[in-house]
Amino acid sequence: MTERYLSAVLEEAEQIATHHEQVAHSTENAAHEYLRYAVLKLLEEGPSNPDSTLPRIDDVTVGYGQDTAMFESWHTDVEWWMTVPPQEECTRFRIFYPTEHESVPRLIVDVMSALGAWRVWTGNAVDCGSYDHHERREVHFLWPQGHPVEDLLQERVHGPDAVAPDGGCTGDVRDRMVASANGGQVDDLEPRTRRAVTEEMSVSLLEKGGRYEVQSASGNRYEVDVVGESCTCPDWQQRSPAGGCKHLRRVDHEIKRGRVPRPDGRLPADAADSG
């Protein structure tokens, strides 16, 4: 039974890696990014393969982010970490589902189990500022970076003998800088934005509604809300600079270039042509 769901996740992730490589353009571990976005698409929209027999559940929403970064942003407002403390190098999935289900829907459990994730919290959904989840329930799963499923995806996409330039990760940010991809276009940017674009950072969608996670070269992680125009970094909290901090500017640039999903969680239609 698990093999069926694992195949569905890998197939979805392979489609994303093949046709929407820009999703993981600025992340250090592309395979991890493809897989967690594949979970989002699989549970929210159903399999891309029309011949798939995988069941569907309506009104499911998936959010995810680095567990310690989520802890730093929300630990004073929620009680998720009372049972399991924040985990380094782990993704936390937040999966929302209708209250009509008396227990966590079986599809969610099977998909996450196939991925190798484990359940850490279940309860009533709460509104954390992005969009309203009142009268819904949510379940949380943790999934570690470097899980063997990432190697399975690597083999599907590149073959069993593929070796990534960083010795294991499929998308070393040092080899995929936005500056090199855009060439001379970077020189035309406003100086503060140009620095934000060329500095080594990784960006990923944290939660639909405009929340993104940014990891800086120093290893610090910040939460950016592009809709509310805010960031958890000290620069924004203390000065709120005109035009946004470097993290806001970087996320905005990555969205416009089609390298991360849009705030609504969808991939831009013309992403493949964005360079």
UniProtKB/TrEMBL annotation:
User: Where is the sequence biased in composition, kind Basic and acidic residues?
Assistant: 256-267
Segments carrying the region annotation (Disordered) are 256-275
Q: What keywords appear on the UniProt entry?
A: Metal-binding, Zinc, Zinc-finger
Species per Swiss-Prot/TrEMBL record:
Halobaculum saliterrae
Extract the GO molecular function terms from the UniProt entry. Answer: zinc ion binding
| Signal peptide (from-to) | none
Where would one find coiled-coil regions in this protein?
Answer: none
* The protein's name in its UniProt record: SWIM-type domain-containing protein
The SWIM-type domain extends over 222-256
Q: Does the keyword Zinc apply?
A: yes
> Aminoacyl-tRNA synthetase: present as a keyword of the record?
no
Q: Which InterPro entries match?
A: Znf_SWIM
Q: Which PROSITE patterns does this entry report, sorted A to Z?
A: ZF_SWIM
